[in-house]
Amino acid sequence: MDASASPIVDISALTKVYPGGLTALDGVDLRIRKGEIFALLGPNGAGKTTLIGAICGLVTPTSGSIRVFGHDLATDWRKARQRIGLVPQELSTDMFDPVMRAVSYSRGLFGLAPDPARIEEILRSLSLWDKREERIMALSGGMKRRVLIAKALAHEPDLLFLDEPTAGVDVELRKGMWSIIDEMRSRGVTIILTTHYIEEAEEMADRVGVIRKGRIIAVDEKEALMARLGRTEAHIALAAPLQVLPPEIARFSVELEDGGTSLCYRGGDGTGKGKAEVAELTKALYAAGIDYTGIEIRESSLEDIFVSLLGEGEQ
Predict the structure, then answer these.
(1) What is the CB neighbour count within 10 angstroms for residue 253?
(2) 311: which residues sit within 8 A by CB, 6+ positions away?
(3) What are the angstrom distances between the C-alpha of 33 and each of 223, 224, 264?
(4) DSSP secondary structure code for residue 205 in this structure
(5) Which residues on adjacent β-strands are paired with residue 192?
(6) Helix (H/G/I), strand (E/B), else coil: 167
(7) What residues does 28 pair with on adjacent strands?
(8) Which of 160, 164, 189, 313 has the maximal Cβ count within 10 Å?
(9) Distance between CA 15 and CA 63 in Å, rounded?
(10) Which residue range or ranges hold the ABC transporter domain (predicted)?
(11) Residue 272 — φ and ψ, nearest 5°?
């Protein structure tokens, strides 16, 4: 993936204010690269679905601009929309339709000629071929979700939006969906997903954006975000309780817990040096004659960072 290439989605100063004064999007700037999986994280009401709707031509912005594949959505949205697939949160198709008919119909909506072989390929890739003659209403929740993906892929989009793709499905099905998403990416499809499951972004995404109250508050490569904003936390079980920390220990980012029986280190200042500081801390404890019986170290997860970012926004 060439980070220097022109973005396939280029959003500038995008704002959406609904009647009544609700600001759903507030000056959003965002660029999406070809071939990446981009995860958009945010709490309910943050503006995720409104942003997707605006890019897909379903929501009219109040101000700002959106260019998709070089097309300005304000003047040329039809050409852009032909290359976009959308998997919404809710099933909005005729529940009495058989799977094959529903997916084929979606292809026809974009003016494409029938292609039974392509539809078969899509259904097989989603393990839906054996269900092709079944009515959608008879399928399980996970299979219905796959039908939504099949419908979105029917016109062979280059950009696919997945709005909470695994909401309401069990862990096994969720991991199956991850595999499907990875396969689509391998075919060259650019994927933007919103999700409540932080581990989904941690597993799949190349880049992560965090949106809060209609504003993008962070965008970065996933690994860079975790390195820059991550922290190291270490819990050291002391052999004997301490009432006060000696100066040579207090210089570290530590505090006594559990009645002085445990020493907690929180630090690393986002540079990844936390583990090195913990090693220095253990040497300092030894030099000070302070014995310990165990140590537990953990690095921040993407979820920790997400929660921290949202917490900073509340201040």
Answers:
(1) 17
(2) none
(3) 17, 17, 41
(4) -
(5) 38, 161
(6) coil
(7) 14
(8) 160
(9) 5
(10) 9-238
(11) 85, 10
Strands 190-194 and 37-41: what pairing?
A: parallel
Specify the residue for token string 């954006």: 209
CA 52/CA 11 separation, integer angstroms? 11
Q: Are 260 and 242 in contact (CB under 8 A)?
A: yes
Cα-Cα-Cα-Cα torsion 88, 90, 92, 97, nearest 10 degrees, comes to: 110
Ordered per-residue pLDDT tens for the chain, 315 residues = 555 568 999 999 999 999 989 999 999 999 999 999 999 988 888 898 899 999 988 899 999 999 999 999 988 888 888 889 888 877 666 788 999 999 999 898 888 899 999 999 889 888 899 999 999 999 987 888 888 888 888 888 899 998 877 666 666 667 777 777 788 888 888 999 887 677 777 778 899 888 889 999 888 887 777 766 767 888 999 999 999 999 999 999 889 999 999 999 887 755 557 778 888 999 999 899 999 999 988 776 666 777 777 776 544
Backbone angles phi, psi at 65, to 5 degrees: -135, 150
Alpha helices, DSSP H, located in 160-301: 171-186, 198-204, 222-229, 247-250, 274-287
Give the length of the chain: 315
- CB 291, CB 263: distance < 8 Å: no
Handedness of CA 1, 225, 309, 201 (dihedral sign): positive
Question: What tokens were used for 209?
Answer: 């954006």
Residue type, 125: S
Residues in a beta bridge with 87: 162
Residue 255 to residue 152: CA distance in whole angstroms: 53
For the chain, which domains are there? 9-227 (3.40.50.300), 231-299 (3.30.70)
Q: How many CA atoms lie within 13 A of 312 on its CB side?
A: 10
Least Cα distance to 66 among 40, 31, 21, 101 occurs for: 31
Sheet harboring 207-212: ordered strands across? Answer: 84-87, 159-163, 190-194, 37-41, 207-212, 215-221
Token pair belonging to 48: 């995720």
57 — alpha (psi -120 to 50), left (phi > 0) or beta? left
